[in-house]
Write a structure and sequence with these properties.
By secondary structure, this protein is of the alpha/beta class. It is built from 31 helices and 25 strands. α1 packs across α17, α9 packs across α12 and α20 packs across α27. It is globular, with a radius of gyration of 27 Å. Belongs to the glycogen phosphorylase family.
């Protein structure tokens, strides 16, 4: 079969024990066996460390995709880096985020198997020698890549795929072969320099930091993986048995490489280097093979997130790849020039090399010219990709551009994390939905079924009680389980607008204070997420959330009508607890900034209602469930563009909206930071004078919309009917559907639903 290689610098796997039991159909048996030993399986599950080898959406998507590819019986491999330290653990000290190293391998990792027999060399630095026999990359430094394999089981189909993560090892002669003969100790200690490549995950989400170590990581995973792919291609019975060397004509029919963002973009010049320099394939033939093999997924349109590497860094680290990129770019620009004679500006816009004070390589442009398919991750995002980010490239090759709306695996995000809801659903429609989530549509027949309404509401209440108990046990915070659980969990970023949520909390607080005897719908506002350690504004946002909580939670006038809780150290295992307990899901990014979002889908399938903008996959969620069954508010992409043309003036909203003015004045005056009245001046200054994400422009619509949320929450029956409608319409957002589309429309393979025989039965 054709093999699929999913290349990603992040795999945000979380815990593995329960997922393995679920997918092997062993959960009940294991629970029972452990219970008979006088133990509690949940206690055991809580001991396992999360594999936090990712930052957020992009890394978690890769993990969901592995689950779906195995469940659909695809011959797929995930390839990445075995970081010794994953995403940092977040501690809140005095209301501020403090990072500590995530030493997740401290007690070993029972799920991985080292495969030293497949260790491979990776080359860095050196120089290029052009000889009559061809091009040689010589005098390089070598680092060894040691593979660690983790099994990826499909759901009850006896398929087990592999995730192979590379770890960096210094060769035994490292720094000893050189002239520093005398200093043996120094040389051995320097092995760390090589092994640092796989030491730590860069903790930036949607932000590019052009560090040499990161470029080394990107080449390291690519070089090791491509050697592995080619070894496997040659050893399989498909390489037409040419005794001298394998012919690579059939390579794209046997191998598909999916690039998860531009991070593994070096796959394109590396495959060219191997084909041309090592395998002596003709340049144009090699380029055809490379393009037919690779496909690129774009994950963001934020300019600060796009990878633009300095040419000077490439020249030093990967001199041959730089030559290849120059040659590919020349070929590409010649083609553009022929089609658009005299259009110099178009050549400048479309070049892989950006001219300027510091020449840079635009990795997204490299991916577009080097791939046969380019996709966005939600319909609105794919449209933005075609009409703005890669507009020129779309005009050149419109057939290249596709949409693949993201999804989530229903095994982890329904069956595993919300067994109560899964049971109530299965009782009504059977278990088919677990591998075909579109079957949830059958629940529409039960929207007015009183017992079903009651059962769904009961499961939600149980999940809320359980989460409230967890918060009390772990963080000593008492919350009111009958309040609305209003949840925003995601990485802290200005574009995700946690600040808009803060302004709502303050407004609610001020309304209670101004009329304490009035009846209010009680809310527990929970906000969680990590800030990149170097992102000052994101860290200030966390401090603001904790400071608001400090004031509101200790005000006797408020009582338990309003609480603001910051959820510390948000991660996969915490998501599995909070999402099933949520009533309201906040998805409030400025329209046109969140490529897709996947948390939005997890909340939808777990019976929360969504308050959100028309951004990312929210658009398709509203389309599936009906816009009237989500709380949609605020500017659309067109409105944001119009406001940009007109010029966004925050001052105008500040002057016109008294509740907004009051909230900002309180933040500004030190009402929430009495010990340090000037604490939030940077935040207020940003909101008033350079807010790229237009928080004030959506404030009024947001507050109004939150009022509608309160109204509906006071009618539990109508609320639950809306919940059921949302669950029933969430089927599209399974990663099984997403992967089927990738398979058919990009990789050219057909997924199989057949269960292969278990290993204890003879095969046909």
């Amino acid at each position: 079969p054709q093999r699929i290689y999913y290349l990603s610098l992040e795999f945000y796997m979380g815990r593995t024990l329960q997922n393995t039991m679920v997918n092997l159909g062993l959960q009940n048996a294991c629970d029972e066996a452990i219970y008979q030993l006088g133990l509690d399986v949940e206690e055991l599950e809580e001991i396992e460390e999360d594999a936090g080898l990712g930052n957020g959406g992009l890394g978690r998507l890769a993990a969901c995709f592995l689950d779906s590819m195995a469940t659909l019986g695809l011959a797929a491999y995930g390839y990445g880096i075995r970081y010794e330290f994953g995403i940092f653990n977040q501690k809140i000290v005095d209301g501020w985020q403090v990072e500590e190293a995530d030493d997740w391998l401290r007690y070993g990792n029972p799920w991985e198997k080292a495969r030293p027999e497949y260790m491979l060399p990776v080359h860095f630095y050196g120089r290029v020698d052009h000889t009559p026999e061809g091009v040689k990359w010589i005098d390089t430094q070598v680092v060894l890549a040691m593979p660690y394999d983790t099994p990826v089981p499909g759901y009850k189909n006896n398929t087990v795929n592999t995730m192979r993560l590379w770890s960096a090892k210094a060769p035994n002669d490292f720094n000893l072969q050189e002239f520093n003969v005398g200093d043996y100790i120094e040389a051995v200690l320097d092995r760390n320099l090589a092994e640092n490549i796989s030491r730590v995950l860069y903790p930036n989400d949607n932000f590019f930091e052009g560090k040499e170590l990161r470029l080394k990581q990107e080449y390291f995973v690519v070089a090791a993986t491509l050697q592995d792919i080619i070894r496997r291609f040659k050893s399989s019975k498909f390489g037409c048995r040419d005794p001298v060397r394998t012919c690579f004509e059939t390579f794209p029919d046997k191998v598909a490489i999916q690039l998860n963002d531009t991070h593994p973009a070096l796959s394109i010049p590396e495959l060219m280097r191997i084909l041309v320099d090592v395998e002596k394939v003709d340049w144009d033939k090699a380029w055809e093979i490379t393009k037919r093999t690779c496909a690129y997924t774009n994950h963001t349109v934020l300019p600060e997130a796009l990878e633009r590497w300095p040419v000077s860094m490439f020249e030093k680290l990967l001199p041959r790849h730089l030559e290849i990129i120059y040659a590919l770019n020349q070929m590409h620009l010649d083609r553009v020039a022929a089609l658009y004679p005299g259009d110099i500006d178009r050549l400048r816009r479309m070049s892989v090399i950006e001219e300027g004070d510091c020449k840079r390589i635009n990795m997204a442009h490299l991916c577009v010219i080097g791939s046969h398919a380019v996709n966005g991750v939600a319909r609105i995002h794919s449209d933005i990709v075609k009409n703005s980010v890669f507009k020129d490239f779309y005009e050149l090759e419109p057939e290249k551009f596709q949409n693949k709306t993201n999804g989530i695996t229903p095994r982890r995000w329904l069956l595993l994390c919300n067994p109560g809801l899964a049971d109530v659903i299965a009782e009504k429609i059977g278990e088919g939905f677990i591998t075909d989530l579109s079957q949830l549509k059958k629940l529409l027949d039960f929207i007015n079924n009183e017992t079903f309404i009651r059962d769904v509401a009961k499961v939600k209440q149980e999940n809320k009680m359980k989460f409230a108990a967890y918060l009390e046990e772990q963080y000593k915070v008492k919350i009111n389980p009958s309040s609305m659980f209003d949840v925003q969990v995601k990485r802290i970023h200005e574009y995700k607008r946690q600040l808009l949520n803060c302004l709502h909390a303050i407004t609610l607080y001020n309304r209670i204070r101004s009329d304490p005897s009035k009846s209010f719908v009680p809310r527990t506002i929970m906000i969680g997420g990590k800030a990149a350690p170097g992102y000052h504004m994101a860290k200030m946002i966390i401090k603001l959330i904790t400071s608001i909580g400090e004031v509101i939670n200790n005000d006797p006038y408020v009582g338990d009508r309003l609480k603001v809780i910051f959820l510390e150290n948000y991660r996969v295992s915490l998501a599995e607890k909070v999402i099933p307990a949520a009533d309201l899901s906040q998805q409030i990014s400025t329209a046109g900034t969140e490529a897709s979002g996947t948390g939005n889908m997890k909340f939808m399938v777990n019976g929360a209602l969504t308050i959100g903008t028309m951004d990312g996959a929210n658009v398709e969620m509203a389309e599936e469930a009906g816009e009237e069954n989500l709380f949609i508010f605020g500017m659309r992409v067109e409105d944001v563009e119009a406001l940009d043309r007109q010029g966004y003036n925050a001052q105008e909203y500040y002057e016109r909206l008294p509740e907004l003015r009051q909230a900002i004045d309180q933040i500004s005056s030190g009402f929430f930071s009495p010990r340090d009245p000037g604490c939030f001046r940077d935040v207020v200054n940003m909101l008033m004078y350079h807010d790229r994400f237009k928080v004030f422009a959506d404030y009024e619509a947001y507050i109004t919309c939150q009022g509608q949320v309160d109204q509906l929450f006071m009618d539990p029956r109508e609320w639950t009917k809306k919940v059921i409608r949302n669950i029933a319409c969430s089927g599209k957002f399974s990663s099984d559907r997403t992967i089927m589309e990738y398979a058919r429309e990009i990789w050219g393979v057909e997924p199989s639903a057949t269960t292969i025989p278990p290993p204890n039965l003879p095969r046909d």
